[in-house]
Amino acid sequence: MAAAGEPEGTVVFALEQTAGRGRQGRAWNSPAGQGLYLSVILRPQTSFPVVQLIPLAAGLAVAETLKDIYAVLPDIKWPNDVMVGGRKACGILVESSIESGRIDFAILGIGINLGQEEFPESIRANATSMLKETGLLIAPNDLLGPLLDRLVQWYRLTTTSPAEIIKRWEESSTYARDCRVTICTSEETIEGITAGLTEAGALLVELPGGLEREVFCGEVSLRKVKSDE
Length: 229
Fold this sequence. Notes:
229 residues; 33% strand; SH3 type barrels; 4 helices; 6-stranded antiparallel β-sheet; BirA Bifunctional Protein, domain 2; alpha+beta
């Protein structure tokens, strides 16, 4: 649809996904009626680096929506997870088409676990749903409108006030600083301590010895640093 010219803001909303996927090609468990599954066509009129800010903006929109509707305290985990009760409640994926250094379009995908009571064994220890965390069951349709309202607000800031996104993201994430991180890319493995975000949305990692490294992508494993570490 994006390649065919559908306009920015077009939303595709699914009641079920039979081949849902997340980052690194992983499957996303998407049972019928138990989650909010949507993709949004975006056409930001700016250069490529803004793509790094879109998942951060989406994470803030999801966290605010869940907080307002469910009265929970979400946490945001770089680059694309929203956590509730220490487990993953939402995944975010952005894929883009780039031509001549500019974005032709980007697809923002969001999956929020709402009504699942059980998960496949492979993700059971790390996944949760809003039903499990709060005992409340809210229909996907009822969450869609409030989420899109907040998504519009935060997406606009990717071009008008990107510094506000970085500031609010760091304030909203307990993983942003002083968290042990291991990042595996196709070329290397990086280990260190998180030190916030750059203005472009990259994760800053303090390496052993005190040097800092900007990380834009990779397989990320984060864990909180204990007081005696």
